[in-house]
Design brief:
This is Polysaccharide biosynthesis protein GumN. The chain is an alpha/beta fold. The protein is 49% helix and 12% strand. It has one domain. Helix 1 crosses helix 9 and helix 4 packs across helix 8.
């Protein structure tokens, strides 16, 4: 999907949770004249319920100091942390879930699905990034696309254990907070697995074509995230979203609508909840906030 070419090749890391949380991404600090700016945070509130909405980047470069100020206060005040998914403690369990959905049922070799020129570029890109394309022959194209979309960043030395969700989860466990999820790992992986073959191939080909720009594109997106600029983040993503409306509907808009319904139902219970989802879900048209507005629920941006 052009969600990954080239802007949303990297914006996938702002949209999908645990499925991509083991991969590496770039991160750049953004400073203003009056100090470090914080990522955006929103609040949904009634008489006895408060829900915070925080957009995340699922993996970050070490040394990023974002968990403080209003974000930390909101988290500390919350009774429960809610993520997109809860990753299994055993990484082999996630690998098993993904592998079961990724294997091609028609037994067709992945590279044979591609046109000759595209096949040559794909195989060269895989080899250049330390991914043996032969080992992916049993898989559907979306699996290779995901692997290839993040592999170049691994070569840049970014770490896999610095993601926002990992830090929040550790803090929640340390303080005895309940941890919940909006989706299951099977559901999240299923969004990719259910893509029609034509879209899977387009996604893979676009991933290959966009590899040269991935670092610069992601740096730009993440700088907007840290600067608390969701509108600019959305502008970066819009071109690719508009170019792939079917994929945007499946991977972004439908999920936003489901999550808004979940939030509406949760507002019927007292308490304070801290929801952390990929930042792309909280930016632009049809965001979670827009879906909540359609349900008659207002959100307010929290200012430091």
């Amino acid at each position: 999907m052009r969600l990954f070419f080239p802007r949303l090749l990297v914006a996938a890391l702002l949209l999908s949770g645990g499925l991509l949380a083991e991969h590496r991404t770039a991160f750049a600090r953004t400073e203003a004249h009056n100090g470090l700016i914080a990522p955006a945070l929103w609040e949904v509130k009634d008489a006895d319920t408060t829900i915070y909405l925080f957009g995340t980047v699922h993996v970050l470069k070490p040394g990023v100091d974002w968990f403080k100020g209003g974000i930390r206060r909101a988290f500390d005040q919350s009774d429960e942390l809610v993520l997109e998914i809860i990753e299994p403690d055993n990484p082999n369990e996630m690998a098993s879930i993904m592998g079961a959905k990724a294997i091609a049922r028609d037994a067709a070799a992945l590279s044979k699905r591609l046109e000759p020129t595209a096949r040559e570029k794909y195989q060269a890109a895989m080899e250049a990034n330390g991914l043996p394309w032969q080992a992916f022959e049993v898989f559907n194209p979306w699996m290779a696309g995901l692997a290839l979309s993040v592999a170049p960043l691994e070569k840049l030395g970014y770490k896999a254990d610095q993601g926002v969700e990992k830090l929040l989860s550790a803090a929640a466990r340390a303080t005895g907070k309940k941890i919940g999820a909006l989706e299951t790992p099977e559901q999240q992986i299923g969004y990719f697995a259910a893509l029609p073959m034509e879209q899977q191939i387009a996604f893979l080909n676009s991933t290959v074509e966009g590899l040269n720009d991935i670092e610069a594109q992601f740096d730009s997106l993440v700088q907007h995230w840290q600067a608390g600029e969701p509108d600019k983040l959305a502008e970066e993503m819009n071109e690719s979203l508009e170019a792939t409306p079917e994929l945007a509907q499946i991977l972004l808009f439908q999920r936003n609508a489901h999550w808004a319904q979940w939030i509406k139902a949760r507002m019927g219970q007292p308490g304070t909840v801290f929801i952390a989802v990929g930042a792309g879900h909280l930016a632009g048209k049809n965001s979670v906030q827009d879906q909540l507005k359609a349900l008659g629920i207002s959100t307010a941006r929290i200012q430091e």
